[in-house]
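Why does residue order matter? Because the sequence determines the fold. Keep that principle in mind as you read this record.
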Amino acid sequence: MKKIMLLLSITIMFSNCGTSQNASSNSKKAIPDVSYFANTIAAEHLKDMLYTFASNEFEGRRTGEPGQKKAINFIKDHYVTMGIPSPIADGDYFQEIPEAFFGGKAKASENVLAYIKGSEKPDEVLIISAHLDHEGVKRGEVYNGADDDGSGTVAIIEIAKAFKDAVDKGLRPKRSILFLHVTGEELGLYGSQYYADVDPVFPLENTVANLNIDMIGRIDAKHENNPNYLYLIGSNKLSTELHDLSEAVNMKYLNMEFDYTYNEDNDPNRFYYRSDHYNFAKNNIPVIFYFNGTHADYHRPTDTPDKIEYDLLAKRAQLIFYTAWEIVNREDRIKLD
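Structure:
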């Protein structure tokens, strides 16, 4: 009963979030509410980006290789066009990772960083992450990685665009947001490890949470008859408050089915340890890992953009945007248990 009351109270609080920041009814130019910005995340935008990002031209985006260099410039160009700056230096969106860090597995590579500065608590940062790399070319075949993790990459860009639109219309988030595109995930979570362990551009103690997106564009066999779902991993492992916030956001806006199968401590797949959120979780930063599950094209050259469910990808990205919106605009930062 206490948990139900908590969820209801959070939901009521959210019903006022965003609109409380709006102009008064007497204002000549009202500021749109959060749903307006969420709805700018569109299937056609995601499809247009992903058909380029997961094309053969990008050669499977293997860490350190020419296709991966095309990928980081593709991401950078979108942030430049949107007018979203880098936190590293003016015009420098690349966090350089030396070849030695990869232990012989790859050449030197780069994470891509962009951010929106908070209005009231700029030193507190939410990180939204996804990995930009994939398997490259094997035996003459391009492993395009449309779902893994082209879907997460383009979702972040659309989420960033929605936040920038809010800023341009007078609703800057209270906290800062780092849009973090990491390299080297397929080789062993190297890009997120470099950020967390070697060069955290924003101090980890000021990082309020990490929302990590890795494969959100497909439907797995379990949910073929119910595609309105998403696997969530890690949401309650460090912060019950984050878990409850996530549930309340979903209940208020989209009412998707959250599947926690892979969140179980005894999950044999060990997905909690297998994507970039883990390098934040091990540092006691609350995380949520968003995932559609595996499918027949997982880590195969057949993971191509024509198989992505773009309407579903947009809806999942909207959910993550809503969750991020609440995290960065609430009065207190997410608490650890």
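Residues 146-168 form the longest helix (23 residues).
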